[in-house]
Amino acid sequence: xxxxxxxxxxxxxxxxxxxxxxxxxxxxxxxxxxxxxxxxxxxxxxxxxxxxxxxxxxxxxxxxxxxxxxxxxxxxxxxxxxxxxxxxxxxxxxxxxxxxxxxxxxxxxxxxxxxxxxxxxxxxxxxxxxxxxxxxxxxxxxxx
Length: 144
Prior knowledge:
- The chain starts with a helix and ends in a 22-residue tail after the last strand.
- The model is unreliable at about 35-45 (pLDDT under 50).
- Helix content is about 35%, strand content about 10%.
- It has helices at about 5-10, 25-30, 40-55, 70-75, 90-105, and strands spanning about 60, 80-85, 110-115, 120.
- By secondary structure, it is an alpha+beta fold.
- Helix 4 (about 70-75) packs parallel to helix 5 (about 90-105).
């Protein structure tokens, strides 16, 4: 019995018999893995564009300088990396920041401090858009 029919039977809208004449196995399985159930074609186009652009972002909280290699490998693949250094010793954190600065310079990317001891490394083809209202964008909740 299908889930809609079961719910209807529980609500008392249909007879709760084991009559399966309206039940179709083709619809009970759900969509095949390759099928797309999107009704709005714009959603499908946006999804394909996002896959083409590579919309992955990595977040790394290194334990020590030995984790810098993983940061570099992800960045070389064109993945933006957020590096959280809050749990590291200051000396090791400085070495990782120096490594990240050299990495972004060598691959023409950029490095930006997001918070205290948190940095964003972006490849050359990414643009960072600041949401800081003090930069003249004009906030949503402006009470001036």
